[in-house]
């Protein structure tokens, strides 16, 4: 099989299978041959690992994963792609294609059935339009996985890797830090893709924590508080939380004070410990 990063190969495959790239599925195929090996290097997988890939496309990253991992399960929503993948991945017997939407797949069951007694990682070039929902599903489902290494829009990668309490942080930054330890690995320029997107991409790795860095008694309430705070980030945290949770502003200010915080603090200045303290104060009726 010719190199899948070669533009003439991609065009020949598209013509052979009457396949056109879908903007709706966020399809941008990698044409820089150095990118996929670098992504897999960053993921840390080897011949002991089982890997879940999301959105294999024509199989460029899938091939690199299959060369190094014990087994790859690639989840693809585009029903036009299996015949293409059957050709591009014909040399590998350790790849399985699951034709489903990753947001509806029972990943716990998939991991039990496909990767018994293996360490498992996720490695993918994610569609940009659905990055956050996929990341949050992978984290919130508390899957028996050790890491998530994904290529996303650089702006999204910066948010995923941002420390709570810093200017770049947002609700997704806090959620990621609660479940994982993120690390920004490297950037990828638009010219590395076909068609070239209008934005720079970046690869980020999330190492799943064995336990959250803060203890909260009500996770649902904790994340509702975080989302409320960042829902109107131009406002003070007190105003945003009060509006987002439908609480009296005075009660929220009292909770901030009880947590040892300035009532005028901005949402992006709040750390996970701060959010946990505010939630505890609100729960106690302060």
Automatic annotation (TrEMBL):
The keyword Membrane does not apply. This is Ribosomal RNA small subunit methyltransferase A. Its EC number is 2.1.1.182. It catalyses: adenosine(1518)/adenosine(1519) in 16S rRNA + 4 S-adenosyl-L-methionine = N(6)-dimethyladenosine(1518)/N(6)-dimethyladenosine(1519) in 16S rRNA + 4 S-adenosyl-L-homocysteine + 4 H(+). It comes from Faecalibacterium gallinarum. Belongs to the class I-like SAM-binding methyltransferase superfamily. rRNA adenine N(6)-methyltransferase family. RsmA subfamily. Its main location: cytoplasm. Specifically dimethylates two adjacent adenosines (A1518 and A1519) in the loop of a conserved hairpin near the 3'-end of 16S rRNA in the 30S particle. May play a critical role in biogenesis of 30S subunits. The gene is rsmA_1. Residues 35-210 form the Ribosomal RNA adenine methylase transferase N-terminal domain. GO terms for cellular component: cytosol.
